Structure formats: C-alpha cells, structure tokens
Amino acid sequence: MNSIAIDCATSRLSVAAKKDSFTVKSVLDIGIRQSEKLLPAIDYVMKEIELKPSDLDYTTLTLGPGTFTGLRLGLSTLKSLTLSHDIPVYGIPSLDAYSYDYRNSRHRVLSLIEAKEDEFFLAIYANGKKIFEDDDKSIDEILSLFTDEDEITVCGPGAGSFIYRAREISPLIKFTQHAPFYDACSSLFELTEQKIREGLEPLKDYDGPIYVRKSEAEIVYEKNHQL
C-alpha cells in the first residue's frame, strides 16, 4: 500500500512516504520553522519515491499524547490532504506506536515521551496488551508502579532521560533501554494497515489529538481567571 506517515509526538517531526515495500523519510528538527517546512517535506518524500497524492491509499500519524504544537500541525496537515484528495487519515496513539516493536518482550514494556523536566507521558504493556492507560506522571510516580524485583523494557523518545534519572532513585529495578530509530513511522504504517485489514474506520472530521494534560496556555488562563 502507498501512504504518508507523520510522527509528530515530539518536537522532532518525522515524515515518511511508503510505496509498497519502499520508504523515504525526512526529519524536521528545526523548531518553530517546522510549520513552514512540513508540506515541502511531504512533497519531497513523495517525489523521491515517485508518488502523487492520487496514489495514496491512506495517511497516518501519531495522535498523541505529545507536544501540543506538533500534534496539531501533523493532524491539520493530513486532514487538508483528506479534504483535497479524499484520502483517509488514521491516528495511532503515540505510546502504542513507540512500544509496537517490543510487543513480544517477556517483560513489561514502559513507553515514554518526555513531557517536561521530571514528568513523562507513559503507558505500560504486557504481552502486547496495554495494561496502564496513557497518563502524565513524575518519575517518582512512575517508579511507584513497579517493585524492586521487576524487569522493565523502556522505550520511546523519553527512555534515555528517564532511565538516567530513575536509576539514581531506584537502582534495584532492572531497566532495559530501547530507543526508537528517531521516530515511529514504520510502526505507524504497520499498525494502520492492521486497522484497515480489520475494517476499522479512519478519523472523522471532528476527531482531534489525544491529550492527557492541559496546555501551558490553558493552565495560565485558568490561574488568571480563578475567582
């Protein structure tokens, strides 16, 4: 199948085009300029793999949790393709996409995205099934979910910074770190095509990102408008 995938859960956006078994990828790690470069990046990867919008079977992206700006940017971009070319867009929860490669791990899998200093978006999986739903917790709160006898496979873009700090707090918990190859685009393709085979519907017009915390703007607004 032919597709475009955007991993927009972190400040480092990745865009991939897939044509049958071939893939071309572009990474945008350029701060606020991502908004002006995302469409040219999509155009670039499609030209490199010789695809036109009319050739696409679907588009897909990490739906959240993650950075507010990235999620909104990725979703609005793919929905514009849907409107222009009638291409279905699918959303995959970000933490599911990052954990997908470790679904056969014999240990519990902790999928992480760094939210801010000492706080992470997380989900926990066992035997390929989610056993702890997407949440936003501090390092201490996450560690309280495990015991010193546990062995944990840690993945996602927050894995490295979490383990570095967590080992100082709970040195007896056995962590195995698995960082993705910069993004979850390959997992997005696989998970979305599973959805298509199962007959699951794409996103609706009104579907938006998955948020598990309020934005800084919302927090400031509520603080300023407290009675």
Q: How do you describe this structure in short?
A:
This protein is of the alpha/beta class. Helices cover 34% and strands 29% of the residues. The chain has helices at 34-48, 68-85, 94-99, 139-143, 159-169, 185-197, 216-224; strands spanning 2-7, 13-19, 22-28, 58-62, 89-92, 108-116, 119-126, 129-138, 151-155, 174-178.
Can you give a write-up of this model?
There is one protein chain. The protein is an alpha/beta fold. It contains 7 helices and 10 strands. The chain has helices spanning 34-48, 68-85, 94-99, 139-143, 159-169, 185-197, 216-224, and strands at residues 2-7, 13-19, 22-28, 58-62, 89-92, 108-116, 119-126, 129-138, 151-155, 174-178. The strands form 2 sheets. A 5-stranded mixed β-sheet has the order 3-2-1-4-5, with helices on both faces. A 5-stranded mixed β-sheet has the order 8-7-6-9-10. α5 (159-169) links the parallel β9 and β10. It starts with a strand and ends with a helix. The relative contact order is 0.17. The model has no long low-confidence stretch (mean pLDDT 91).
